Amino acid sequence: MAWNTYHQSLCFPSDNPEHPLSILEQLAYEVDGALICSRILATIIQETKKNGGDITKASKPYRMFISEKWWSLIPNPSGSDVTDDVWIDGLKQRVVDAITLLKAGIQVDPSIHSLFSIDFFGSLLGIIEMNSVELVVPSPVTLYFSQLQERNLINSVTNEIWNDIESNSKHDDDDEKVEDIPPPCYGTALCAIQGTINHSCSPNVEVRKENLDWHGDTMVFALKDIKMGEELFISYIDENQSYEERQQSLKFPYLFDCKCEKCLTDQKLSVVK
To answer: Is 29 exposed, middle or buried (0-12, 13-18, 19+ CB in 10 A)?
Structure first.
């Protein structure tokens, strides 16, 4: 599936550390979201080839997300010696570096040059910064043995192998498992439903990933009774923080002051104090 979606464009010899895409993987430590952004670009490129060259149609799934330019979402660290303008220029240069490596690593047809502009790439990074959700999914090894079990294909050999793997999991004094072996995989995803739900510090739903969901789907679960027609809200942050901490956490990267019922109440209480 990955090959048909994006990997044809991003495939490179893994034993070549000098390949532009290999260098991009290292740059991803400085530009958070650069790798998933490159996959989105590759997906748009391959979809554009399939649909006869319609970039607008190929990029439509990503235009539904609210976004600002990435460099406007990353605050200048407190106590920094550089001005805000210099800070933003530095972030923009990192984006330019990522684009340069991508263009060098992917055969870019002139018809898709617009995808490699700093504005478009910056917007994609902004989408990831503002809308992505962190997911934890089971190891492929775990999923493989789960599928064998569901299909009644476990035999004495495979059962012995799995028991040997499972025996390495760590347990506490009460024999409760505290670390899975093989360990789960951690990732970042853009989810259409989650990306359209507004924030509240007193949410009525939450987005969760079921551990044994093989397809990587996320689901929205109610946290309280919800009336017909009532708007759904999730929390973009840790809602257990103090009022001041919540406001600061929402300022970057979400660029708004929260006026939910909880924040209005907490604001009044802070004024009284």
So the answer is: exposed
